[in-house]
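Q: Could you write out the predicted structure for this multi-component system? I'm mainly interested in how the pieces pack against one another.
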Amino acid sequence: MPDTRKDNLEQELREIIAKIVEIEPERITLEANFVEDLGMDSMMALEILAAMEKKYKIQVPEEKLNQLKTLKDAIKLTEDYLK
Amino acid sequence: MNKPFKDKVAIVTGGSRGIGRAIVLEFIRSGAKVVFTYLKSADAAAKLLDEIKEMNGEAEAVASDSRDYAKARQVIEETLKRFGRLDILVNNAGIIKDKALMMMEPSEWQEVIDTNLTGYFNMSRASIVTMMKRRCGNIVNISSVAGVVGMARQANYSSAKAGIIGLTKSLAKEVGPYNIRVNAVAPGYIETDMTKDLKTKDNLTKLIPSGRFGHPEEVAKTVTFLASDEACYITGQVIKVDGGLAI
């Protein structure tokens, strides 16, 4: 994936997550843990997953839900299922 | 005829006989597509499929054991593969192993808990993410008045059925914000294979204010009502269909 597309993906996902968690996008660093650092509850991870699926028209198996803990994870999952 | 469930897809566990069968037929009559599970009753399942075909309904029978989570998950996958969506889950599969507690083997306790309670958890767990993602869904759990008032010689069954009520209320609170409703129906004595051998039927009938056993169709009507949009503000409730037995 070209870097510009990856940058876009990072930015888009950051905005999606910021909207769901209702915090400023800049607080969502690649490594910030959704639960421990950003105060998310477990239900929000599902909302993020659903939003990712809708935006990128992908289908992520629900077993992957517990792998979605940071923005970095969200990018990886999206990339994996965009292929 | 009115088809309130047109384009809707329902799963009914233990759907080949008794109350489950009546629920399957009621959904078909109301326009839903149905996947029903059975464990041992392959002949009854095939017969029901024929009946549904004659009604121009669409259904699939899946041999499955809801005591096993992986198998419960397969039922959901099969439903999504066949019909593309899941709107309603009716947990109904149940067994009885009635005995006085002093004579009850631990295995007889466990088997009833595994099927009647853990099976409901497994199916609910296997389908809830699909429903939550769509922000839409409906679960109806078949409990029993035994779970509300207790029944002698049914400590295992009553415990499982009371557990179902706890599951129903907890899950209703948890997924209400996702537009998913969860309710329970608690039948009393209903004319099915499960009650046909009751030796004390006459005495039991005297305890029922309505003066008779109920029909599976009467339970089924309550289930389809709860699953319908008519009941859109009802969640976490236990509706007794018992002719007044447990007033």
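A: Regarding packing and overall arrangement: The first strand of chain B starts at residue 9 and ends at 12.
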